[in-house]
Write a structure and sequence with these properties.
- The protein is mostly helical.
- About 60% of the residues lie in helices and about 5% in strands.
- A two-stranded antiparallel sheet has the order 1-2.
- A hairpin with a 2-residue loop joins strand 1 and strand 2.
- The longest helix is centred in the first third of the chain and has 19 residues.
């Protein structure tokens, strides 16, 4: 049996890197914001979906925006398969994205 801490960082073949942990926790936070509709200002931004279920993002070249939580969260969310984006239970969502993060987020920044 694993403890909660090792469960978050150890995914089968190995440990998540800092880069992957940032992605993992960003996705969980976006999920919670969308589910609970709070904080309201972030929920308004992160709940604007297009017809394919992707978060609608501002088209901007501002570096500050591109380094923000909203931008990172929307980018990662939009990369998730639709089945994972449609999940409604946090526990199931967490379990489903662990392997996805390990396989789809680079271990180290470029």
């Amino acid at each position: 049996r694993t403890t909660g801490r090792s469960c978050l960082t150890s995914l089968g073949a190995g440990w998540l890197t800092v880069q992957q942990l940032i992605g993992y926790h960003t996705l969980i936070t976006v999920f919670r914001i969308r589910l609970n509709k709070e904080p309201e200002d972030l929920a308004i931004i992160l709940s604007q979906d297009n017809i394919t279920g992707h978060i609608i993002m501002k088209n901007t070249q501002l570096r500050l925006y591109r380094e923000s939580f909203v931008f990172r969260g929307a980018m990662l969310w939009n990369r998730l398969p639709l089945s994972r984006r449609k999940e409604t239970k946090l526990v199931v969502f967490k379990n489903n994205i662990k392997q996805w993060v390990e396989n789809n987020i680079p271990r180290f920044p470029n």
